[in-house]
Amino acid sequence: MNRKKLQKLTESLTKDCKHFNKFEVKCLISLFYNLVGDVTERQGVVVGLDRNAFRNILHVTFGMTDDMIMDRVFRGFDKDNDGCVSVSEWVYGLSVFLRGTLEEKMKYCFEVFDLNGDGFISKEEMVHMLKNSLLKQPSEEDPDEGIKDLVEITLKKMDHDHDGKLSFPDYEAAVREEALLLEAFGPCLPDPKSQKEFEAQVFKDPNEFGEV
């Protein structure tokens, strides 16, 4: 990408991006094109990170291991559902993923956990996610029973209107009372350590190192 084009893209993304400054947006754009590789932008060809490349970043950089959650995070970034994360989706997605406000993170996590997109997290969805994210431990007990019990406890704590499923207002009220419930059904945000390392690595000021 030539300098003029990069500058134009940086300016347009910075304008709409609440949590990154111009320098940081530029760093993220450069990283994006490094990750995508040397793809020539042709008319009508979408340049982006496909599901596998994106999941690889989540796994290697942010230590995520749960396939279903990684898949959902990919869908959370891929707003237009075209099967790949474009440069603008990458910058806006990371803005919430790394530095979102509590409100933004709640919306993002709720979307990740609402597997069928109907606006509720159902008992079935909870069982499905918890089954995936809990470590498989060899024990005498039936693990499914343990998960069902956990779902009942979670519902008791979070289902404010007692309709047997979680709406966004239920989830929001529960998280405001107890912040740890933000990722109740699986880790879909970076932990502080990997977030710090990622930012330190990506947002390097070339002037600091005497590089031109």
TrEMBL record:
**One Pfam family from the UniProt entry?**
EF-hand_5
Record-linked SUPFAM superfamilies: EF-hand
Which terms are listed as keywords in the entry? Calcium, Metal-binding, Repeat
Which GO biological process annotations does it have?
regulation of flagellated sperm motility; regulation of signal transduction
Drop me one GO molecular function for this one: calcium ion binding
Q: Which PROSITE patterns match?
A: EF_HAND_1, EF_HAND_2
Q: Does the keyword NAD apply?
A: no
Q: What range(s) does the EF-hand domain occupy?
A: 65-100, 101-136, 146-181
Example GO CC term: the record gives:
sperm flagellum
Keyword presence, Repeat: yes
User: What PANTHER family does UniProt report for this protein, alphabetically?
Assistant: CALAXIN (PTHR23055:SF75), CALCIUM BINDING PROTEINS (PTHR23055)
What protein am I looking at? Calaxin
